[in-house]
Structures are given as C-alpha cells and as structure tokens.
UniProtKB/TrEMBL annotation:
<keyword id="KW-0805">Transcription regulation</keyword>
<dbReference type="Pfam" id="PF00392">
    <property type="entry name" value="GntR"/>
</dbReference>
<dbReference type="InterPro" id="IPR015421">
    <property type="entry name" value="PyrdxlP-dep_Trfase_major"/>
</dbReference>
<dbReference type="InterPro" id="IPR036390">
    <property type="entry name" value="WH_DNA-bd_sf"/>
</dbReference>
<dbReference type="InterPro" id="IPR036388">
    <property type="entry name" value="WH-like_DNA-bd_sf"/>
</dbReference>
<dbReference type="InterPro" id="IPR004839">
    <property type="entry name" value="Aminotransferase_I/II_large"/>
</dbReference>
<comment type="similarity">
    <text>In the C-terminal section; belongs to the class-I pyridoxal-phosphate-dependent aminotransferase family.</text>
</comment>
<dbReference type="InterPro" id="IPR000524">
    <property type="entry name" value="Tscrpt_reg_HTH_GntR"/>
</dbReference>
<keyword id="KW-0663">Pyridoxal phosphate</keyword>
<dbReference type="Pfam" id="PF00155">
    <property type="entry name" value="Aminotran_1_2"/>
</dbReference>
<keyword id="KW-0238">DNA-binding</keyword>
<dbReference type="InterPro" id="IPR015424">
    <property type="entry name" value="PyrdxlP-dep_Trfase"/>
</dbReference>
<dbReference type="InterPro" id="IPR051446">
    <property type="entry name" value="HTH_trans_reg/aminotransferase"/>
</dbReference>
<keyword id="KW-0804">Transcription</keyword>
<protein>
    <submittedName>
        <fullName>GntR family transcriptional regulator</fullName>
    </submittedName>
</protein>
<feature type="domain" description="HTH gntR-type">
    <location>
        <begin position="21"/>
        <end position="89"/>
    </location>
</feature>
C-alpha cells in the first residue's frame, strides 16, 4: 500500500471558498475523480482526518464530512485501528505520482477515444467580427424592441398560479391557447383557412424544415430550388441526401417553364420557395406564377414547401397571399416564423399542413423538442389577443420603411456608377448587382480593415454574376451613412 505522505493531495485538490458548493463536496468530488482516473489506486491508505485537515488547511469536521461522503458513495472503507482505504478493483496501470502532472485531474480529454461520422455539409457558415459596423442578411433592429413591455406579458403569465402547473409536465403539442390565436392571426393576415389542428409550433424555421425533410424526403429524391436560394435550407436538404436542382429566377420569381421541363425529365419530390421575398434577391413571385405552380404540383404530384420569409415586412402595398391560401389539393406545406419583429427570445417557428401529416410531425417534434416553451407561447397568444402584435408591427414598419428609403438614397449617391438594384417592396435587405466585376472577398477583407464587416454569406460571385445581399433593418441613419461610405471608398479603390 502507498504511504499517505507520498501523495501530494494539495497539488490536485483546489478549494474555491467563494463557491456555492460546500467545501467538503468540492474535496470529495475531486478525490473521487482521482480514484476514477487511477491516481488513487485500490488499497491506497488515506491520511487520518486530523492530518488531512492540516494538509488542506480545513477544519477537521470538514475532513470527517469528506470521508463520510466517500464512504456513503462506496469509494472507501474504514477499518478499525487501521485507517481508511480506497476500495475497488485492482487497476492494471495506476498513475504513478511522478507522472501525475502529465495527467492532471483538471484536464478534459482533447479528443474522443472512438471514431464518428463528420459532416462538411453542416459546417457553420456564419462568421463573427468585432467591427463596429456590420452588414447582415436582413434582421430586425433589437433596439426597436419594446423588451420591457414584452417582458411584462411573460412575467404576468409566470406569476399566475393557474399557469404554474404548466411547468410540471411535458406538452410537445404546444400551447392550445397560442395555436388557437395564431391560427386566427394567420387566417386574417394570410388568408389561411386553418384551425389549430393544422399547426405545429417549433423553435425556428430551420427546425420546421428539418422535421419536414425527415418525414417527406429520402436519399436520392429531387428537390427544386431557385438558382440562388437560402443556404441554410440547402444544407438541411443536402444532409437528407437529396439531389438539389437549381432553376432560374427573374424579376417575377422562379420561372415556371423551367419547373415544367424539370418535371418532364425526372420525378420531382419537392419545390422549395420563398415567394413573398425570394432569398436572396428579394423579388416577389407573381400571382399568376403562383397559380401555375399549384397546377403543376397537382399535375406532377410534387410538394411545394412555402417559406414565408419576411412576410411581416411589406411597405408599398399589401402582400400577395401565400400559395397555401389557394391550395385545395393539399400539395403545399407552409412554414414561417412568428414574432420576427420582436426580441429573439419572443420568436417561434410554425408549420401549417393538413392534419394527417401534422400527426406524424408531432411524433418527430416530441423527440427533438419534447418540452417546448408553453409559457412563452402563452405570452405570444395574449399579445395577439390584445392586439399588441399589430400595434408593434405597425410602429416598426414605419421605421423600417424610412430606413429602406434612406438606404436606397445612400446607395444611389455613393455607388450608382458601380451597382444596380431595385428598391425592395418589403423585407429588410437589398439585392445589389455589380455592373463591373469586382473581387467581393477582397472587398470584404478591405472593408473589415476599415471597421465594416461583410460576411461571406452575403456575397454571390460566379463568372456570370457579382452580387451582394445587404441588410438595412439593424442600422440607423448614422450607421447606414458610415457603412455605405466605407463600402464605397473601398470599392472605388478596387475598381
């Protein structure tokens, strides 16, 4: 047996006297860790409680509590007139004291001891920068959010005793109250004649598309998307092992004749669309093409996955109603996010589909998000019921429209000789096409050196196209001016 004096307990036991975890439990956990990792092998005699308390500079009662805890958990045994010993199976290669510094108990393994599948498809495409000015792909300005008012809704709900029982059980079907009000809201705002039974509440649009893909897509299926499409959605499709076919778009959205030709050549399983504001070009799918696509879906039996990206943000006229509002054959699955104009924590995703598909989707949601967020959904339901959503959206739309108009003026004043664009009728981003070729990655790097960050996910460059998607919603007038100034200066240097 090792003599207790040979083991440097003070070298691997660290005590945080400001921690909320009791000192005796801190020490006990570290000793257990040492036993598990072989530093304190079978048969090791621990010092007496008086000596142990002197080594670690703790009260003897604390040392007694440590040993009692180790004994209760079955790591040590105390033998009368002999001492306290580590119990367990003999270890083939216990860690030697002189090697202990190489095998610190504070080190977590740097790599797994087993192999696993890796995916290049799911590599995170998003970048981070400390630049003061940042372009994104079109997100709301969190500074406009009335967080205090939204929080009061949530706080009020949490305090009600009638709602506290919601915390004690799982309900992956979501809040019935919220679904009731959301279905009514979608009926009035989007012309969707649905009930709460046609709704599935998710955490995000990406989660919605993942669930849809898991149920409806199989490896080898063909999915049609726009020639430029939403990159994160394409990542989900690729992970499903499908064959993605990109089709041309123009100023009226995806070209229907190309969809028809694709259907004649092969079996199409799904068509993915962002018809309200096509991502990334911001063009709206015309009403006539929407009807033609519905007819094609019925004729050839493919699914239309309609993403209502940026539906809430429209300025010049009322938006065209979704394809789902005119679908009578059950060929459209409608997905979107609710509360995008609110603080991020108050947003949620949803799926609208016929009830037979909805029952299958609930099974998948029950696996990946069993708990849900019933209280937040209740708060959102009350915000709909009391008209808070309508009031806030109306107020924020006025601000975003002013920002859109000013952003367009700045682009024209500073970059008119280099770019062309159409002022978007809605959404929170502009699509800029460069009249002359410019290395967008180099432009992005140069701007970053001047405190303006342009992520690579906003850059679109091929031999036939040089374009950018620039969000304006998160920028006030002063930030717009500085950002466009930096972009313009660096573009002129390159060109």
């Amino acid at each position: 047996m090792d003599s207790p004096v040979k083991i440097p307990y003070e070298s691997f036991i660290e005590i945080d006297r400001n921690s909320e975890t009791s000192i005796f439990m801190q020490i006990a956990n570290q000793l257990i860790n040492a036993i598990q990792r072989g530093f304190l092998p079978y048969g090791t005699k621990l010092p007496g409680t008086r000596a142990f308390s002197d080594i670690l500079d703790i009260h003897r009662n604390t040392a007694v509590a440590v040993y009692d805890e180790l004994s209760a958990q079955g790591w040590v045994e105390s033998l009368p007139n002999k001492g306290t010993f580590i119990i367990g199976e003999n270890q083939e290669k216990p860690v030697r004291v002189k090697d202990f510094e190489k095998n610190s108990l504070q080190n977590y393994p740097e790599a797994t001891g087993f192999s696993f599948k890796t995916s290049n498809i799911l590599d995170n495409p998003f970048e981070h920068s400390d630049c003061e000015y940042v372009f994104n792909d079109g997100v709301p300005d969190i500074r406009l959010t009335q967080i205090g008012q939204h929080s009061r809704f949530y706080s009020s709900i949490l305090k009600r005793k009638s709602n506290q029982k919601m915390l004690g059980h799982y309900n992956h079907d979501g809040s019935e109250f919220f679904k009731e009000h959301l279905s009514h809201y979608l009926n009035l705002s989007r012309g969707l004649p649905i009930s709460k039974n046609n709704l599935l509440i998710t955490r995000s649009t990406e989660m919605s598309i993942y669930i849809v893909s898991e149920i409806l897509l199989s490896a080898g299926d063909t999915v049609l998307v726009g020639a430029l499409s939403y990159f994160s959605v394409n990542m989900i499709f690729q992970k499903s092992g499908v064959h993605i076919v990109s089709l041309p778009i123009d100023e009226e959205g995806i070209i229907v004749e190309h969809v028809r030709e694709a259907c004649k050549k092969r079996q199409i399983r799904m068509l993915y669309l962002t018809p309200h504001h096509h991502y990334p070009t911001t063009v709206a799918l015309s009403a006539q093409r929407r009807l033609e696509l519905l007819d094609l879906a019925h004729e050839y039996g493919f699914i239309i996955l309609e993403d209502d990206y940026d539906y809430e943000f429209h300025y010049d006229k009322s938006p065209i109603l979704p394809l789902a509002s005119a679908d009578t054959k059950g060929m459209v699955i409608y997905i979107g996010s609710f509360g995008k104009s609110l603080a991020p924590g108050f947003r949620t995703g949803f799926i609208v589909a016929p009830e037979n598909l909805m029952s299958e989707m609930r099974k998948y949601l029950g696996i990946i998000d069993r708990q849900g967020d019933i209280l937040m959904e209740r708060a959102l339901g009350e915000m709909i019921e009391e008209g808070e959503i309508h009031r806030y959206l109306k107020k924020s739309l006025k601000v975003y429209q002013e920002r859109r108009n000013y952003f367009a003026e700045l682009l024209t004043e500073n970059l008119d000789e280099f770019i062309q664009f159409q002022k978007p009728s809605g959404g929170l981003a502009f699509w800029l096409e460069w009249k002359v070729p410019v290395n967008l990655m180099q432009l992005s790097r140069n701007c970053a050196r001047n405190n303006l960050f342009i992520p690579k996910t906003l850059l679109y460059q091929t031999k036939d196209l040089t374009a950018m998607r620039l969000g304006f919603g998160n920028l006030n007038f002063e930030e717009m001016e500085k950002s466009i100034e930096i972009l313009s200066d660096n573009a002129k240097r390159l060109l």
